[in-house]
Write a structure and sequence with these properties.
Layout lengths: L1 H12 L4 E8 L5 E12 L5 E10 L1 H47 L7 H25 L7 E3 L1 H7 L1 H8 L3 E6 L7 E3 L1 H17 L5 E12 L8 E10 L6 H6 L17 H11 L3 E6 L5 E8 L25 E5 L3 H13 L3 E5 L2 H10 L5 E5 L7 H11 L5 E5 L8 H7 L1 E5 L4 H18 L5
Parallel strand pairs: 5-7, 11-12, 11-13, 13-14, 14-15
Antiparallel strand pairs: 1-2, 2-3, 4-6, 7-8, 8-10, 9-10
Helix pairs in contact: 2-3, 2-9, 3-6, 6-8, 10-11
Length: about 450
């Protein structure tokens, strides 16, 4: 720094305005960014007679600029990730749906059937991967479900081992009778992955990472509503955090990692998931003594139960009458697959590629019972088509199948428009279930609810 100042003074003495950015250590030991300038002042003869130095602490400005840059990076990365996952979901939709229909129609053959099952399992694993991508990109609605956290954690072990590396020992500790919790399983996976990566970064020389769960009854706490919870804990033997760092750890964009190594969004996303689920996130840490993150998630009430398995719905035919269904999708692979699934369920399907063509069909025919549409289509989206349909055909049951959730959609709008939403890729069993729900809602209330 001294050499920089000497060079600046010499340049200013030669008559040049000089501006430099310096870094120096503050009183608290932190690094300060200083905007330093020297302005030469000339006398009547034009000679430099005075140097006017000025220095400003721009640490807060630099920090704000870094936060803005990280936010922009995350926005771009989120859009890219969401777009890739959407397109990948369309491909998986065609693959998984076609394999499912072939599996039903081909008699068991020991040389063929196991290969079909293997291909279907591969496509399902691809679907799980895209759900994780969408959870990261925040292009996925929070879908509350009864979740077995122990099974979820066990299912992540291979992925965790690959991500965390060989120097860290990962262990799971869950009791056999741990109750289910009410949360979004894909978001919970993303939260656990965030916490595990944070723990890895806190243990550069290796250590132990323990993921555990316990049932807790909470009473008299100001930070949690009374009730039954599962405490999901992620504990590491790493560097730990100071009290000041702990107090800011869940602030958006706060990070102790170097530039480009951390977004400062991981813990804030986990904190948001806990709050949306009706629970909370709590940190216990001490410098040099590791960190424990406790995620409190509410236990599922007995009257809620686990969500019904979509595959439990009979996929061999419709429980109700034969329907005339208008299918709309700009992707011919997905449209062919959806049409084949609905046809196999016993329905009559009219397939079109655009919202404009769908409206033309509705104007020329009076026998359409239900519309199944893609969301992202050129010229007219599925939501825009639904609004147009409700103006001309109020109460028409409408299902939107989408590769990712449109976060601008309001649940009230879905109810008003009679919409059901179906995430791609979907199985024939899930499609049959949603069709049944849409028609049931339409017959009982004129409009189906989300």
């Amino acid at each position: 720094m001294r050499a920089t100042v000497r060079e600046a003074v010499a340049s200013a003495a030669a008559g040049h305005f000089v501006r430099r950015e310096l870094t120096m250590r503050g009183r608290d030991g932190g690094t300060l960014a200083i905007d330093f300038s020297i302005k030469p002042v000339r006398d009547e003869d034009g000679l430099v007679s005075l140097l006017v130095p000025e220095a400003r602490d721009v640490s807060a400005l630099k920090a704000a600029q870094a936060q803005l840059l990280e936010a922009q990076k995350m926005e771009v990365l989120g859009r890219l990730t969401g777009g890739v996952a959407h397109d990948f979901n369309n491909l998986l939709m065609a693959i998984l749906g076609s394999l499912e229909l072939v599996r039903k129609r081909v008699p068991y053959d020991p040389r063929i059937t196991p290969l079909l099952d293997n291909a279907m399992q591969g496509a399902e694993r691809g679907s799980i991967l895209t759900q994780r991508m969408l959870a990261f990109a925040r292009k996925q609605e929070l879908k509350m479900d009864a979740v077995d956290v122990a099974s979820l954690a066990r299912g992540m072990m291979t992925f965790l081992d690959r991500t965390i590396g060989g120097k860290i020992e990962v262990s799971l500790r869950f009791p056999a009778d741990l109750p289910r919790v009410l949360t979004d399983p894909y978001q919970l996976e993303a939260a656990l992955m965030n916490l595990a990566v944070n723990a890895r970064d806190a243990m550069p020389d290796g250590g132990d990472l323990i993921i555990s769960g316990s049932a807790e009854q909470v009473e008299g706490r100001p930070d949690l509503a009374p009730g039954h919870y599962v405490r999901l804990s992620v504990t590491d033997t790493g560097e730990g955090m100071s009290p000041e760092t702990v107090s800011r750890a869940t602030d958006p964009f706060f990070t102790t990692k170097g530039v480009g190594k951390g977004t400062g969004l991981g813990l804030s996303m986990v904190h948001g998931l806990a709050a949306q689920s009706g629970g909370g996130l709590f940190l216990t840490s001490k410098a040099g003594a590791g960190t424990q993150v406790d995620l409190y998630l509410p236990v599922v009430r007995k009257d809620c139960g686990a969500a019904a398995r979509p595959d439990a719905v009979a996929a061999t035919g419709s429980a109700g009458r034969k329907l005339t269904i208008l299918a709309v999708d700009d992707d011919p692979l997905v449209l062919t697959n959806t049409t084949a699934m609905l046809d196999d369920l016993g329905h009559h399907v009219i397939a079109v590629n655009t919202g404009k063509d769908a409206l033309e069909i509705l104007r020329s025919r009076r026998d359409i019972d239900l519309i199944v549409s893609d969301e992202l289509m050129p010229h007219m989206s599925g939501s825009q088509l639904a609004k147009a349909v409700q103006r001309s055909h109020p109460g028409m049951p409408f299902i939107i199948a989408t590769g990712y959730a449109d976060l601008t959609t309001v649940a009230g709008d879905d109810t008003r428009l009679g919409l059901r939403r179906l995430a791609k890729p979907f199985t024939q069993g899930l499609l049959a279930q949603v069709v049944s729900e849409a028609m049931g809602g339409a017959s009982s209330a004129g409009v189906s609810s989300l």
